[in-house]
Amino acid sequence: MVFLSGAGSKNPMTAERVNRLTGPMLSTRLESKQKDFEERYDQIFNVNNKIVSKELSVGRAALSSLLGGIGYFYGQSKIALPKGFSQKNGDKYIPYWPAALYTAVPSRSFFPRGFLWDEGFHQLVIWRWDAHISMDIIGHWLDLINADGWIPREQILGAEALSKVPEEFVLQYPSNGNPPTLFLALRDLASAIHAHQFSDEEAEKISTFLKRAYVRLNSWFQWFNSTQSGKYEGTFFWHGRDNMTTRELNPKTLTSGLDDYPRASHPNDEERHVDLRCWMLLATNCMRSIAGFLKMDSSLEKDYYKLSDQLSDFETLNKMHLDDKTGAYFDFGNHTEKVRLRWYENREAMKRELLRETLEAPHLQLVPHVGYVSLFPFMMGAIPPESWVLEKQLDLISNSSVLWTDYGLRSLSRTSSMYMKRNTEHDAPYWRGAIWINMNYMILSGLHHYAHEDGPYSVRAGELYDELRSNLIRNIVGNYQETGFFWENYDQKNKGKGKGARSFTGWTSLVVLIMAESYPSLHR
């Protein structure tokens, strides 16, 4: 199909123009562009001798699909008013300012909108391909920050984005955050300059960008530090959980990105979330790294150094979150395991309802669910390489009764009381067993780190790294060759089959970096 403008003009030269756009000339140009792409891919990701040829083509497809999904969106987010408030016309929201967003998306066909926590993982791939595209995207996200330092976690801008979002998920809540994963890519960019991976001209442009972004990044960080802090100094929890719900087996934590991953059964302000503590450590170290790189020296930078040392304190981390028996890190909160969903007869409404029943009073304790959250300090390299805790973490990773499968690590242990349990009548398990590539990539990063650190567990970490990497590549490639799709997550119970949204070339495209053995620079 050829689109020609001006076909109705006096001298449209239709035949000549069609010939220039089709046939052998087009084929030749396409082949030339494809060759350029493949040569550049090989140069950047350097996968020679690391994978076989059939895996190489799948990696190229993952990258091109991620890049092809990048979009430019324009519109206004809808910001929820406080509970009980509404406008004169009855609306329970106010519009954000009209804004543009240039961003990658998890799936252009199914999720055609920007997700804040997904975007950091997308940028880990994109900056390696083109740092200028990555800076442009991150800059657009930072342009969405408000006076308080808050960025709406889902960007539902324009008709395409709105068409794919259920009404109950459109409103954005200014008390709710999302993992600040953009710091993953920003830390990488700063580290790459330090390691002289860019030309002098490129390094200067990236340095200028980081310097301009620093003020907004600081506002964003301070928003987290003030609004997501816990009851005690140095503690954090994801705000926004529903402590009044009667329909959820375990109140969801959408703000964490891990949705229905089990947390304390009865939310309150005593909660401590170990994953958020680790994200804050990453953000603090990134701000500290950028400040050091830009040779800043002010009271603000000294505060980042102080907070970084505080959040890196291994004894404090263990005191707050470690279960000595299993070596797993757990959340802390008002919790009981004795909850269930059961049917109740609602005679007034003439229907049955599936509601939560609490069989035992909750009390403050560690929340005993082993899964991705239990490994966050491991992912971030926060465990000393000589610590006995590291051995326990490797035990959890390698145990097939807990997290290990031949297709990747499951999100929640088979031993958990919430494993593969529905959260409501209509909510199937999501982060309660399925294999997710972004978290497997982060765990691989931890294994790679500890395999190269002097310590008694380096050899074992290296062996697990090789096996997990091989399993992930084989399963993603096998599913792609069988179905033609990259998937949202993979089924740990059904031979690693892809499930959820398909054409999910957001963080599943991290398979490119897994093949290239390229990991984020998380460690000081």
Account of the protein in words:
This protein has 524 residues and is an alpha+beta fold. The protein has helices at 14-21, 23-45, 53-68, 116-129, 131-142, 158-162, 182-194, 200-227, 274-293, 299-311, 314-321, 376-379, 388-398, 437-451, 458-483, 511-516; strands at 71-75, 78-80, 93-95, 99-103, 114-115, 154-155, 322-323, 328-329, 332-335, 339-346, 351-358, 363-366, 487-490, 498-502. A hairpin with a 4-residue loop joins strand 10 (339-346) and strand 11. The longest helix is centred in the middle third of the chain and has 28 residues, at 200-227. The model has no long low-confidence stretch (mean pLDDT 94).
What is the molecular shape?
globular
Intertermini distance = 54 Å
Tally of DSSP β-strands: 14
β-strand percent reads: 5-15%
Oligomer: single chain
Averaged pLDDT:
94
Spell the H/E element sequence: HHHEEEEEHHEHHHHHHEEEEEEHHHHEEH
Q: Please summarize the sheet with the most strands.
A: 2 strands, antiparallel
Stretches where pLDDT is under 50 for at least 5 consecutive residues are none
Domain Glycosyl hydrolase family 63 C-terminal: 22-517
Pathway: Glycan metabolism; N-glycan degradation
Protein name: Glycosyl hydrolase family 63 C-terminal domain-containing protein
Keywords: Glycosidase, Hydrolase
